[in-house]
Amino acid sequence: MEQTHKKPESFTVDHISMQAPQVRKVGVYDGKHGDKISKFDLRFVKPNTGAIPTGGIHTLEHLLATYMKTYLDGVIDISPMGCRTGFYMSVWGNVPSGEVQRALIRSLHEVLNTAWEDVPGISARECGNYRDHSLFAAKEYARLVLEGYGEL
Ligand SMILES: [Zn+2]
């Protein structure tokens, strides 16, 4: 018999009407012991209109992994989407989108002020593809998102 697979939420969301930048709360998940985890879609680029180059999204991943944890409590993980139009982020607790958006805006301002020497984890020992980084592209897209929010 054929196995039926569960469809991820993101495959049922209309990507044509989706706007960017946008912080979208995907859902709140309940753990067996009463813990809650919120999942967010941090959309940087409107789907199917472009994509962040791999070097840029990789460097943003390294920077946001650090900065978002500074400005938001309980961040578990922040990972680039395969389509390169944004990130998924998981956070402990039931966290409102507005709080995430404020933390993202602060983090992206910090990206703009980051020097290459200060990008964390970019040696061959620390990263799985240390040659594929671009702080230039990371800043370009940080600027684009801040502009979209009217925060530049
Ligand atoms: Zn890396």
Description:
The chain is an alpha+beta fold and 152 residues long. The chain has one domain: 2-Layer Sandwich (Gyrase A, domain 2), CATH 3.30.1360.80. It is built from 3 helices and 4 strands; from the N terminus they run ββαββαα. Strands 1-2-4-3 form a 4-stranded antiparallel β-sheet, with helices on one face. A hairpin with a 5-residue loop joins β1 and β2. α1 crosses α2, α1 packs across α3 and α2 packs across α3. The protein is globular, with a radius of gyration of 16 Å. The N and C termini lie far apart (55 Å). The model has no long low-confidence stretch (mean pLDDT 95). Bound molecules: zinc ion. Zinc ion (ZN) binds next to α1.
Could you provide a short overview of the structure?
By secondary structure, the protein is an alpha+beta fold.
